[in-house]
Design a protein that fits this description.
The complex is a heterodimer of chains A (224) and B (300). Chain A has 224 residues and is α/β, with parallel strands linked by helices. Helices cover 40% and strands 12% of the residues of chain A. Chain A has helices at 43-56, 66-69, 74-93, 126-133, 145-158, 184-196, 205-220, and strands at 33-36, 39-42, 60-64, 101-102, 137-141, 162-166, 177-179. Chain A has a seven-stranded mixed β-sheet, with helices on both faces. In chain A, helix 1 crosses helix 6 (184-196) and helix 3 packs parallel to helix 6. The longest helix of chain A has 20 residues, at 74-93. Chain B is α/β, with parallel strands linked by helices. Chain B has helices at 18-26, 56-67, 83-86, 102-116, 130-135, 138-146, 192-199, 212-228, 251-258, 273-299, and strands at residues 74-78, 93-96, 123-129, 152-157, 203-208, 232-237, 268-271. Chain B is 38% helix and 13% strand. In chain B, 45% of the residues are buried. Classes of the chains: A alpha/beta (224), B alpha/beta (300). Chains A and B meet through helix 3 of A and loops of B.
């Protein structure tokens, strides 16, 4: 497998200001590809990995952003349907003790003095929602890239959450796993993979996976 | 355009926070005759704010938002100050400019909107404090009036720099001693309403926000006139209760005291002949519309 950069993007907490993965040499995938922890892979491999992460998490969560929450056009409405289908599939296929969630990011305003972390996520302090709900794996979908980058870095900086980006553009280096050119078909395909792996991933497997990543870092020294 | 433009995807309606659900079901956007009476009922008119308790600026903000005639096609331009703490809560497009250059941003924005959306009404409203309007941004403010840029400038005049601790501003009254200006102001309050008139504003008002119906009328007039005739300027007294040593519940009385005859915020209005004729024409059309609606109702 080709290593696109020297930097392994894995769950944090990493630092108050984690580096942008791009500045560490990580590149974005080309069409038909995705990345897992910064490593460029064929898209199909990423679908399987994302489904495994979702099923291995205790609180797998989808964060739909403004591009899919609001009915801007027919495409947005179709994507919303697909995301809801993915969520329903996740609820159906996740291990019994897992608690899948669907939490909206309605807009990007810095909502001071407070947000309600039970019902929403804000890109300026996404860690609050993740901490409050003990989310260990999440997927961003329908979030404008600049806000997703900001959020993904904050999440990596201060939480233990594994991040997946279902990006409609070129993908996100700062997610632990990123797709590009997200479409209704790709979201549905991910749902298929979740269905396919139902029962194959033990509850809480994500934790072990992250621990393995960390031990690999210690051996290879690729993290910092 | 109206609130029909912003709908939540069916699948996600139930998971959206209540203020967004209210925004698409209850908002006053597109509602005929919206006004200050909608405050307190509609969440988009700043249900919660992040200003100090009892701050008159929060009242002013709410009345202005409720009075905008075309909120869904309005862009507000703000500047650094207490107002920038509220803009994130506002359900109207807004841009935060650098301290002082709000009228320059608004000039470009208004021109761009006119080019991009020909034949469509797009309003631009500047809302900034006295520091941004009169001190640091005075050049930009005046230049936009000289150029006859077609937008409304609203100044929240609290007569000092409030959120940095109470420094002297140009609009502070002579002799006033503030926490960070212990010597006392040595020169008179800058007479910006008069300067606005001389600089080309066709509608200028100086008042407080103690009377919501008056604020509503003034804001509507200013926006309508700026659309058709030329720049308009509204100076509203929004005292900083903390900096003048008042309690939370005393803001309203402070404004009432300051608008008595002969006081510095006694209602003052300048309107050009052209703007006056335009408003009269508008009122005539409104009257005719109401009469025909009444007639249609009687016939039905």
């Amino acid at each position: 497998m080709n290593q696109s950069g020297p930097y392994v993007v894995r769950p944090g907490p990493e630092a108050f200001l984690p580096p942008a993965a791009a500045s560490m040499g990580n590149a974005l995938p080309d069409p038909g590809q995705a990345h897992i922890n910064g490593r460029i892979v064929p898209e199909e491999e990423a679908f399987e990995e994302a489904a495994r992460m979702f099923l291995g998490g205790t609180v797998p969560t989808i964060f739909p952003g403004p591009l899919v929450l609001w009915a801007w056009n027919e495409k947005a409405k179709k994507k919303a349907k697909a995301i809801k289908f993915l969520y329903d599939t996740l609820k159906e296929c996740a291990p019994q003790d897992a608690k899948p969630m669907l939490i909206p990011m309605p807009d990007y305003r810095p909502k001071y003095p407070k947000i309600n972390p039970e019902v929403e996520i804000n890109p300026n302090h996404p860690n609050l929602t993740i901490w409050h709900n003990k989310i260990d794996v999440c997927m961003f979908v329908g979030v404008h890239c600049h806000q997703a980058n900001l959020s993904l870095k904050i999440i990596r900086g201060g939480t233990t959450c594994y991040t997946i980006a279902m990006c409609a553009q070129a993908g996100h280096e700062d997610a632990c796993l990123s797709f590009r050119d997200a479409s209704v078909e790709k979201i549905m395909h991910l749902a298929e993979w979740v269905k396919k792996l139902k029962g194959a991933v033990p509850f809480g497997a994500l934790k072990k996976h992250v621990a393995a990543l960390e031990s690999k870092d210690r051996v290879g020294g690729t993290r910092n | 355009m109206s609130k029909e433009k912003i709908q939540i995807c069916e699948e996600f309606f139930d998971i959206m926070p209540p203020e967004y659900q209210a925004l698409v079901t209850n908002a006053t956007w597109g509602k005929e005759g919206r006004g200050w009476k909608d405050v307190g009922v509609n969440k988009e008119l700043i249900e919660q704010h992040s200003l100090c308790a009892g701050c008159p600026e929060s009242m002013a903000f709410r009345y202005i938002l409720a009075s905008l005639p075309n909120p869904e096609d309005t862009v507000m331009v703000g500047s650094t100050g207490c107002t920038s703490l509220v803009f994130p809560h506002v359900g109207v497009h807004n841009i935060h400019s650098l301290f002082g250059n709000q009228n320059a941003i608004a000039s470009g924005l208004k021109r761009a909107l006119t080019l991009r959306f020909p034949g469509k009404v797009k309003d631009v409203v500047v809302l900034a404090g006295d520091g941004a309007t009169v001190d640091i941004g005075l050049d930009y403010t005046l230049q936009s009036w000289f150029r006859q840029e077609m937008f409304t400038t609203i100044c929240f005049d609290n007569e000092l720099y409030a959120n940095t601790g109470g420094q002297e501003s140009g609009l502070m009254q002579k002799g006033f001693v503030a926490k960070m200006a212990p010597v006392g102001k040595k020169f008179d309050k800058v007479r910006l309403p008069e300067i606005a008139k001389e600089s080309g504003c066709v509608y200028v008002v100086n008042c407080t926000v103690s009377k919501p119906s008056l604020v509503e009328k003034v804001i509507r007039n200013a926006v309508y006139i700026a659309r058709e005739i030329g720049p308009t300027y509204i100076q509203l007294y929004t005292p900083c209760i903390l900096e003048i040593g008042k309690n939370s519940m005393e803001g309203l009385q402070e404004m009432r005291d300051s608008e008595k005859p002969g006081e510095r915020f006694a209602y003052k209005e300048f309107i050009s002949d052209q703007a006056k004729a335009f408003l009269a024409d508008l009122a005539e059309k409104e009257k005719a519309k109401k009469a025909s609606a009444k007639e249609a109702l009687a016939q039905a």
